[in-house]
Amino acid sequence: MKVAIIGSGRMGQALGTLFLEAGHEVMLTNSRGPESLSDLVAALGPNCHAGAVTAAVTWGDVVFLATPWGKTAEAVSVVDDWTDTVVVDTTNNRSKPGPDGLIDIGDTVSSVLVAGYVPGAHVVKAFNSTPLPFLVPALGANAGANNAVYIAGDDPAAKSLVADLIASIGGEAVDTGSLAIGGWMQGMSGPLAGTLEMLTPDEARSRVEAARAAL
Ligand SMILES: NC(=O)c1ccc[n+]([C@@H]2O[C@H](COP(=O)([O-])OP(=O)(O)OC[C@H]3O[C@@H](n4cnc5c(N)ncnc54)[C@H](OP(=O)(O)O)[C@@H]3O)[C@@H](O)[C@H]2O)c1
Questions:
Q1: What is the distance between the alpha carbons of residues 197 and 134, in angstroms, rounded to a whole number?
Q2: How many domains does the chain have?
Q3: How far is the CA of 89 from the centre of ligand 1 (A)?
Q4: Whether the CB of 7 sits within 6 Å of ligand 1
Q5: 6 CB less than 6 Å from ligand 1?
Q6: 70 Cβ below 6 A of ligand 1
Q7: What domain range is 191 assigned to?
Q8: Quick check: helix, strand or coil at residue 174?
Q9: Is 195 in a helix, a strand, or coil?
Q10: What is the chain's percent helix, strand, coil content, to nearest 5?
Q11: What is the per-residue pLDDT across 98-137, written as a single tens digit (0 to 9) for each?
Q12: CATH number at residue 16
């Protein structure tokens, strides 16, 4: 699969590396332009490319958002047409780890807000709820039983594509529901976020059921 990633910081590089190791092609982007990524893509090998955001969105079979919350709207605004693009939202409305880092978005759900930035796209929220130091070692070639990755979204085909992508890097997708409900559960104010551990798919499904029962 061709995986475009908007944002090449910690999240973009971590996911890009996992996808490359699984045999996918990756295009990385950032705010400073493809030239600034030349050393990084050279280090990541021939299946890794650098591009502008507009080029990457046209190129990719799937587009990951891995930008800071405050930069996400601006990053995607350069693209005119998001129709039928599968977009994976990894972002969180926080500026830094810890309670002080939470960015107030009122009663809205972050992934629903993000979906509004990319009209016509099929947004799936994933990879946001576990910090990278726990997520990354649990996936890839050495993935074990604690490999659950929550996904939320409104389009079954997009969710299925993202679940296949997650399986290709050793994970198992656990469906939390719609972008509004599942996205809220996975988001910063929801009951599934911020776990400093990876769960087995059965454990993750139990937590989703408990969260649904408490609604
Ligand atoms: N790190 C984690 O453990 C973790 C876990 C779960 C979720 N997340 C979420 O993942 C997202 C990214 O976090 P991170 O830790 O990877 O951040 P980061 O290391 O600061 O990287 C941010 C990336 O976004 C790029 N960017 C900023 N503005 C852009 C624009 N207008 N167009 C294109 N690219 C732009 C930056 O490029 P430049 O450097 O060129 O500006 C940089 O490559 C955040 O929303 C965060 O909440 C992170």
A1: 6
A2: 1
A3: 12
A4: yes
A5: yes
A6: no
A7: 2-213
A8: strand
A9: coil
A10: 40, 20, 40
A11: 778 999 999 999 999 999 999 999 999 999 999 999 999 9
A12: 3.40.50.720
